[in-house]
User: What shape does this take?
Amino acid sequence: MKIHKEALRTARQLIRLTIRDGSVNEDAARKIVAKVIKEQPRHYLGILAGYQRMLRLEVQKRHAIVESAVELDGNERRSVAGKLKKQHGDVTSEFKVTPELIGGLRVSLGSTVWDGSVKARLDSLRDALLA
Assistant: This one.
C-alpha cells in the first residue's frame, strides 16, 4: 500500500509524541491509535500504516538479539548487556543459542548486525579463497 506524503508526515509527528525519554510510551501509542481511529482524518489508514511501521522500527532499535553457539552464563550475559546499554542507551537484550555459529557471538540491534562468530569467519575465508 502506497502511503500518501501527508499521511507519512502525520505519522512522523505522532511518533515524536510517542517517544518519551528515549523509549516508546505504550500508553501514548494506544491513545494515539484510538484517537486516529475515532476521528478518521483524511488518509487515516495511511497514517496508521506509517505509524505502525515507524513504531515497529523504533522498538527494534531498542531490542538486541544476542546469539551464541553455547549457553552464556549470568556474568557473560550481564557483561554483554552492560556493554550494549553503555554504547546504545536503554536496550533490552534477548539471548539465543545457535549451535551453527560454532563459536563467538552474533548481535542484532535493529537493522545492524555484528557477527563475530566462527561461522562468519569461515564463510569469509571460503569466499576469499573462491574469489
